[in-house]
Amino acid sequence: MFLPYGRQSIDESDIEAVAQVLRGDWLTTGPAVEKFERELGSVAGQSNPAVTVTSGTAALHVAYAAAGIGPGDEVVTTPLTFLATATCAAIQGATVVFADVSDDTGNLDPAAAAAAVTDRTRVISGVDYAGHPIDAPALRRVADDAGALLLEDAAHSIGGSLDGTPVGSLADITTFSFFPTKNLTTAEGGAVVSADTELLQRARTFKGIGMVRDPERLRSTDEGAWWYEMPELGLNYRLPDVLCALGSNQLTRLGRFKARRAEITARYSAGLADLDGVRLPAQRPGADPVWHFYPLRVLDGRRREVFDALRAAEIGVQVNYIPVHWQPWFADRGYRRGMCPVAEEYYEQEISLPMFPDLRDSDVDRVIEQVRTALGG
Fold first, then answer.
1. Which distant-in-sequence residues (6+ apart) come within 8 Å of 303 by Cβ?
2. What are phi and psi of 3, to 5 degrees?
3. In 3D, which of 338, 347, 276, 340 has the Cα closest to residue 307?
4. Is 254-374 assigned to CATH 3.90.1150.10?
5. CA 125 – CA 67 distance, rounded (Å)
6. Is the pLDDT of residue 1 over 90?
7. Which of 35, 182, 207, 258 is catalytic?
8. What's the CATH class of domain 12-251?
9. What sections of the protein cross the membrane (predicted)?
10. What is the mean pLDDT of the chain?
11. Would residue 182 show up in a list of annotated catalytic residues for this protein?
12. Which H/E stretch holds residue 75?
């Protein structure tokens, strides 16, 4: 039987939560949205409600737009990430500057980020690779010295923390993703959180097509109750009630999801610890990850061999990620292989083993057995 790399964890209470919305008066921009946004803000350690959007990619686009990123600006980020961390900055007209990663966690290396900063740097974007929080204190110093915002792409890590501070309160602005394989799901969806009320207001306006109705923000105040204005451009990235209801119900089980992911990670590590030719994921002191996937590193150039063997054994492993600067769009603009050697070596070794809360211990043991068989251990 094929074992997937990741999958959603849906139960009857999730189905009922969605059904209640379908039976009600609101399908979009109603009370379920407001409820989910308040809950997300609380999980992120913020007094401000979150701004929900239609995907993790939309969250990044909204965050860059809210930060005022545009032509002439530079965004420093990691190449070891999904495309959107970089491309959403490029869509806004910014120049993307890739900096290398730390060898142990795969997260943006503060020293490399500092070396990449120029007087045009407006945002430094770190990614919580595999769910391990970024080195926020060090990256904060780099951002502050540059007069830039620190953005945390926390698509992998809602519910995690660093030194007791929740993910969502470590950076100036944080983005989440609620894709089915993530730590909780709204089917498709994402969110932006920040302690900066003005930044969040700009995010909320942008995701709502740039429209405003608040009398204090209108230029014409003598029109009727139907009046709205568009002071800035925006897009329709609104997450509907029906999906926010699913998100709220999922949040009630986030702690269980996190605990089970930790158990699976520990079981993988125990089963592979004595195996030659692999490197297990690191966890730095003070970091409390929500493990989104298990990034096993296969050494000595054997990653493809092991990947193919596991797929042949019907185990749905994945690779996270192809370095973004290798993509044709970036290559056509002068980005070259070799510019981030640590990230490139990490990619050449990495295999993501199956990880989701409903994974059984017997499934984990099956994966461990097949990895050991593939490596002759």
1. 319, 348, 349, 350, 351
2. -105, 115
3. 347
4. yes
5. 12
6. no
7. 182
8. alpha beta
9. none
10. 97
11. yes
12. strand 74-77
